Amino acid sequence: MEVLDIIRPENQVFCKSGLMTDATLSYCPGCGHGTVHNLMMEVIDELGIVEDTIGVAPVGCSVLAYDFMDIDMTQAAHGRAPAVATAISRTWPNKYVFTYQGDGDLAAIGTAETIHACNRGENIVIIFVNNGIYGMTGGQMAPTTLVGMHTSTSPYGREVETMGSPLKMSELIANLPGTYYVTRQSVHTHKHARKAKKAIKTAFQNTRLGNGLSLVEIVSNCNSGWKMTPNESNIWMEENMFANYPLGDIKVKGKLRQIG
Amino acid sequence: MSDLKLMKGNEALAEAAIRAGADAYFGYPITPQSEVIEYLMAECPEKRTGMVVLQAESEIAAINMVYGAASTGKRVMTSSSSPGISLKLEGISYLAGAELPAVIVNVVRGGPGLGTIQPSQADYFQSVKGGGHGDYKLYVLAPASVQEMADFVADAFEIAFKYRAPVLILSDGMIGQMMEKVELNDQVERMSDEDIIQKYGSWATTGKKGRERNIITSLDLQPEKMEARVQALQKKYERMENEDLRYEKIQCDDAEFLIVAYGSSARIAQKAVQLGREKGIKVGLLRPITLFPYPKQQLFKLADQVKGILSVELNTGQMVEDVKLSVHHKVPVAHFGRTGGSIHTPEEILEALEENIIKDGSIRHH
Predict the structure, then answer these.
(1) Are strands A125-130 and A96-102 parallel, antiparallel or unpaired?
(2) What is the assigned CATH class of domain A27-256?
(3) For chain B, which residues make up each domain, given as ranges?
(4) In A, what residues contact B, Cβ < 8 A?
(5) How confident is the model at residue B365, as a pLDDT?
(6) Under CATH, which number does the domain B248-365 receive?
């Protein structure tokens, strides 16, 4: 097959969702955020819910998510997206409300808002992108940083004695009666991205049915912060991140699953 | 037909919020204003009007819930007291930056730190000089009675939506806790979702239907754009000064001496004016009802008429700075105030006026 054959429309396998804007992504080449954005917009488009969807953007690398997603969005203060989403969902109970948050936002500064929104069983979707580091501020240690991992604020490696252990937020909130669906996915291969998309779709369908809180964690790479090439970072992620953050469903239809 | 009731300031405020057609209240308990959320929970406004009431996990969560509901065009309120307001300031700055309408109530207690649960006016600077980060101001209403605790809720919502800006009702533990008769407004119907979408469709994030997407944010990484955004806010504040200043003059027409006081201090100062008049002292009271905008020009003019001004506040001297800025050194200005939860008596105020102003004023003018 010639190159010109490959790019013919009938041979197209993947494309940019119609709900992604033409703005240039601000993410580093190789980063998973763009893929997650695209999967979410595909799901919202396929479910036909764009007119009733309101997104909440965080502080962090994805602070500008609203530049890329062609839907109504509100930018929240650092860590407070679940509180912002709570109020939107409570005052507009028929809308689809989601937050898009990184691990610094959701698992450090916003831990209280995350846990209480989950515990109240708010009818919202939380998309949680976990790359084990603060990307935007330049690669500092996050609560999710792996033991021994070098960051700009753990330059000799994260040490449990003084810095604590990696925080597994999904396992933590899955134990709260208010959560309905908790799953951990990744988007670094087509196969994984397809599974992640299915999980995101399940989460939005849960909102439609009024089932309560769905959280989809995406374990992702941060090649810039980890100081690796994109490909190296994906291999490192499979070998190290997945060992700490095993992929799979943690809670389905309100029932805990065995994972890892 | 309106309703006459005997109520606590905090309760009157809560009832007024329901009747003003508020869509939501988010709060966290703190003395001396917990009656607001207690009253709302007991009244089941969800059944009365469909108003959402939620006890948040913190003041921080509560103000960010306010931000969320406000971003969709809903009429939303929160209340707290001093340490809780300190926690809310980041969110208040975001509300101002993202140009969102919301009503915030501070039933002030003494500080700094955990301070005391007794009344105070020590949050004046925090309320009118910014408080949170960045170049912003709040429209600040200072009720001096239970009646005004009720009346100012609807007024605050009106201003908040007129300017798409957060409005602060700056009360204190005395106004919040005391009981007085209050005439309540009739129930205003809440706006329907369809009306909100139609009326605020140019900015509110209610879902992208039949229009381009709406974005609520306070972020602009390009300096020239951010500067333009901040300048636009300043224009809004100028408009507030030109169109929505509120104050009350009590016995100022023939006054030789002036007391300036707001909120509970104005209530007490009013009695001091009466006592002074009985002694033959021609004293008047200027009560700023809005603390921003501030009655600067009114004070500037009064300074041509009076011999001296006493700023009476339940703090160690905060509003007095604005009084001094307003009168351009035309007459002596002094401060009198109790703090830490202590409350001045009318006699103390009169004595302070006689010692600090009348004596000085007479030296200056004779």
Answers:
(1) parallel
(2) alpha beta
(3) 3-196, 248-365
(4) 50-54, 56-57, 63-64, 66, 70-77, 80, 83-88, 90-92, 95, 112-113, 116
(5) 42
(6) 3.40.50.920
